[in-house]
Amino acid sequence: MALPLQKREVLRGRYRIRKRIGQGGIGSVYLAEDQRLEGRLCAIKEVEHDRSLPPKIFEEAREQFMREASVLARLDHPNLPKVSDFFSRENRDYLVMDYVPGEDLRTHMLDARRNKTFLRTDVVIGWANQIANALTYLHSQDPPIIHRDIKPSNLKLTPSGLIKLVDFGLVKMLVPDEMTITIIQGQGTILYTPLEQYGSDGTHTDPRSDIYSLGATLYHLLTNTPPADARKRFLRPESLITPRKINSSINRRTERGIKWAMELHPNKRPDTAEDFRLFLLGQKEIITSPLPQLHQQEKKNTLRDMLAQPTEQILAWLIFGMMILSLLTTLGN
Q1: C-alpha 307: how far from its chain's center?
Q2: Could you give the CA distance from residue 209 to residue 170 in angstroms, rounded to a whole number?
Q3: CATH code given to domain 103-281
Q4: What band does 180 get if pLDDT is binned at 50, 70 and 90?
Q5: Residue 316 clears pLDDT 70, i.e. is over it
Q6: 8 has a pLDDT exceeding 90
Q7: Cα–Cα distance between 241 and 167 in angstroms, integer?
Q8: Is the separation of the CB atoms in 34 and 67 below 8 Å?
Q9: Where on the phi/psi map is residue 25: left (φ > 0), alpha (ψ -120 to 50), or beta?
Q10: Are 247 and 118 in contact (CB under 8 A)?
């Protein structure tokens, strides 16, 4: 692999490199200043092609990058960073997009775990609402775009409370008879990858593959526990611990939704990201605004809280009360 770009190096006569902010197996991501638009920061994703590729294969890979980068540049959605430019230099290709400030959701989850608590379920469902909207937009393109790498570290929470799906590393265009993978070939991150995505070309993936990854992401965010990967679950179905056994504050609808999205067979999952979103939301209020408190807080149960509990919990309280009353009566005699 060639040397990384240097600080203050200028690309395309326009983008001055500040620092490297990410690194992968075949490239890096850099924070840069746009010298034509004062004050604008951008993220530049670099893809370095294998120098040993035959010239014809190299040219095909570059043409594929240009073709699919142009598709990404046409996308316009509030939960996706805007791709503003793309170009090549020597054996490297570059994708320029908006720099998204804020921490990724993995960082927020780890912060909750360090504090021995969990992220609030209503907050996470609010995030899921935004992510599902972005996926619905991607899947509705012609041809449909499959992200293939939904995970907590690829989701950023901006200071305004907006979720951004920041990495297009494995995006795939569903073109009939021409299955292609954008920018970086790969299978995603194992914890969040469905069975059908394993393999070299991913020809069996479709929008339901992203739904699985979103379900696995919600599982991790709400339990602070990585889900058992799909291959392990295929061999040992009991290896996936139900979310409420880890975090009892997760409501039953959310647990059912996560398990539905994480079904091993695609036909058993929600057909669309919109179906999944609507199931998760139910009648609950959507939270998307900036939140001063993301973690759960302990609170004392009031009578109103007790009456709002599921029926089996109310019965338990009544039985407990009757036992106390019986004991007091016995002592009084």
Answers
A1: 36
A2: 12
A3: 1.10.510.10
A4: very low
A5: no
A6: yes
A7: 29
A8: no
A9: alpha
A10: yes
Strands 10-11 and 83-89: unpaired
Active site residues: 149
The pLDDT value recorded for residue 186 is 42
Confidence (pTM): 0.80
| Cβ-defined contacts of 312-318 (< 8 Å, 24+) | none
DSSP codes joined into one string, 141-154: SSS-EE-----GGG
Characterize the bridge pairing of strands 92-98 and 41-48: antiparallel
Q: Cis ω on the peptide bond leading into residue 243 (within 30° of 0)?
A: no
**What percent of the chain clears pLDDT 90, i.e. is strictly above it?**
60
Domain ranges of the chain: 11-98, 103-281
Q: Is the preceding peptide bond at 266 cis, omega within 30 degrees of 0?
A: no
In the sheet where 41-48 sits, what is the strand order? Answer: 10-11, 15-24, 27-34, 41-48, 92-98, 83-89
Tell me which CATH code domain 11-98 carries: 3.30.200.20
User: Which of 58-67, 100-109, 142-151, 203-212 ranks highest by mean pLDDT?
Assistant: 100-109
Per-residue pLDDT for 77 more than 70? Answer: yes
Residue 28 has pLDDT above 50, yes or no: yes
pLDDT mean over 220-227: 98
**What are the CB-based long-range contacts (under 8 Å, 24+) for 273-276?**
273/132, 273/133, 273/135, 273/136, 273/139, 273/207, 273/210, 273/211, 273/214, 274/132, 274/136, 276/132, 276/211, 276/214, 276/215
**Are domains 11-98 and 103-281 of this chain identical in fold?**
no
Condensed to tens digits (0 to 9), the pLDDT of residues 238-249 reads: 999 999 999 999
